[in-house]
Amino acid sequence: xxxxxxxxxxxxxxxxxxxxxxxxxxxxxxxFGYLIGTREFHFKKYIxxxxxxxxxxxxxxxxxVVYLIISRxxxxxxxxxxxxxxxxxxxQFIIIFPIMTTLIINYxxxxxxxxxxxxxxxxxxxxxILMLMITNQKSIYLTIALIGFGxxxxxxxxxxxxxxxxxxxxxxxxxxxxxxxxxxxxxxxVSLGAILISLSxxxxxxINYFKKND
Amino acid sequence: xxxxxxxxxxxxxxxxxxxxxxNIEQGRTxxxxxxxxxxxxxxxxxxxxxxxxxxxxxxxxxxxxxxxxFQKPLILKNTVSYNYQILQKIKKFKINTSWFDQFKLSAxxxxxxxxLSGGEKQKLFLARLMSFDQSTLFLDEPNQSLDLxxxxxxxxxxxxxxxxxxxxxxxxxxxxxxxxxxxxxYLENGKILLQENxxxxxxxxxx
Lengths: 214, 207
What we know:
CATH class of the domain at 1-65 and 162-207 in chain B: Alpha Beta
Distance between the termini of chain B: 31 Å
CATH topology of chain A: MetI-like fold
Oligomer: heterodimer
Strand order of the largest sheet of chain B: 5-6-3-7-8
CATH superfamily of chain A: MetI-like
Number of helices of chain A: 9
CATH superfamily of the domain at 1-65 and 162-207 in chain B: P-loop containing nucleotide triphosphate hydrolases
Structural class of chain B: alpha/beta
Shape of chain B: globular
Number of strands of chain A: 0
Structural class of chain A: mainly alpha
CATH architecture of the domain at 1-65 and 162-207 in chain B: 3-Layer(aba) Sandwich
């Protein structure tokens, strides 16, 4: 039977890696989403199309790309990131960044033109407009963050390739579920799966509660 | 005076306004009328420098955009008083808070915006704009969603305000336009069909 401490360790690794990748993804997607959504430039629709295509990137492919970059012979091999939680964070970031950025661009393109016109007439700066857009629709940004987090915590392929499922270091929940199921410990796999789903539900309920009171 | 010479406005190759030649004098109330999609709101935004013309020239005594009443004004998720004050906090405008009471909003002060009716929201937007005490008012369909009583109140306030202000507004309502307007512009498919003073304008429609 699997030890409780190992399960807690996997939960902790999953939460840590997914939280950090979501945090990076969230702030960078706000930055780039705002940059792209509020401006008209020559290649805008191509950039949006590429981001849209990347929303469905198979996690294994994202993992493979990160692996090629950070493996010993890759361009960032000297950083010795392979098989570390940092590598998993990068891989998850690559998966969730296009999703979050596309959602933010969609929201900004809907809201910004009208908001901009009125706020500019009040003498607001671009910074004022951005801050009002964020504070006025906190629930939308939270939902986008939740979508990113949900995708990050539930993916397996990318994190497994670059993390290597090393015990005590990079073995997260999804890696442990795959490993225990492969070993024939179906019940352990199912239990871990239930814990993973419960974690996602708790976070989802928390955010929904916040949205209701917003 | 605001002067428009051969002004065109297009969005994505679509012509919204075409060959607009117009003189709007200070101190009078100019009413822009026309069917939906005729370009009334766009003309109002051009006059207030919110948007720039695709071609043509605009000469105006206003150098920058000033707060105006939009057709779909900004609503922030929070209370009525927060929405009343927030835009004023942006640039720390000095405000005349008496408008909050004049539009009978005091009783709604702590209510959330999503609990307000369309008419109550419109009263808030009007009070928010009026509180800036500007000498020029740009109003895009100020009477939309208002009930009869509030519409009467608005007409009364505008009649008072027009004595010392330049008012430029869009309206669908001929009765209200007749009550408060001095000069009238009628748009059709982005072109000015009529621009006349009150007598000529209403003679045209009664014939």
